[in-house]
Sequence to fold (344 residues):
Amino acid sequence: MELNDIINEFIGTDNYELTSITDGLINTTYLLEDKDQAKKFILQKINNHVFKQPEVIVNNHLMVNEILKANDYQFQIIEPILSRNNRLLVEDVNGQPWRMLSFVENSMTFLSAPSLQVAFEAAKTFSYFLTTINTEKLPAIEDSLPNFLNFEKRVADYKNALKDAAPHLKENAKTEIEITNQFLSLPDQWIEMEKTNQIPKRIIHADVKISNILFDQNHQPLAVIDLDTMMISTILYDFGTMIQSYTNTTHEDDGNATNNFDPEMYKVVKKGFLFYLKEKLTPTESENLDYAAQVAIYIQELRFLTDYLNGSTYYSITHPEHNLDRTKNQLELLKGLREYLEGE
Fold:
């Protein structure tokens, strides 16, 4: 099927308007307006190189929605839309899967937190979302990204990349490799806590950046979006990546950043994260939040450096040193966080 056929399969008309949404990094996303019904939808091509089992993310989405509805969730819920043939996934001529989702009117997103208050509201919203979906019994959520949170593998991948890297790449990244190697044992405690079941398994969002919350025009949260990465793991990862994403005062592509960690942002995001979750967390989870933030930043840095040493085959780049710039940025962020925590 061509794109027009895909659209017809979902809305049954050629009378539509299609606008590209370019914020996402993995899937191809459009705003689709059905002119006959005067209704808007999100149309999305799922990247099946990343999500090798697209049916898993659709099934997970439906399961999460059921839990939200059963627990009187107060925010809007993004609904998958059936095609006219009662299918949630429709394949195009290249075998790429497409889906359609409900659209939230008068909503907006932020790529970074415009204020401490908005950051607090975002963290509080994720706190409420995670509290609501983590009921007594874990549902049969499948892993849409196998080994995504396997930190042992992340470290092993880095060591292999370092061993096999071209000499000029190792030379270019000499300083960053030295610093990275000093912190190689940082994830060990996390790995050990998971292996020995010291931290509980929970449903996590796994992509809690602020752009995955829809806000109204008054900057009040409307909905949590992008449930593709939902998985069973430790909730420490969601807190860690929230800090990694919110506290950076520059863009992660900025390799010249200095003092790019915002301590005030750290405080409000932590307060927001604990707003609903505080009573739900175990003592071990609560005690390891600051540690989790360091690990999340370090693992992201490790992934950028690994890709750089592998010849930049995973992340899209605009210049040869792009992944090295990202590595430098994350190392600076980690340095700022650690200095802040030492001063506490």
In short: Residues 252 and 326 are 6 Å apart (CA to CA). Residues 322-343 form the longest helix (22 residues). The radius of gyration is 21 Å. The chain has a mean pLDDT of 95.
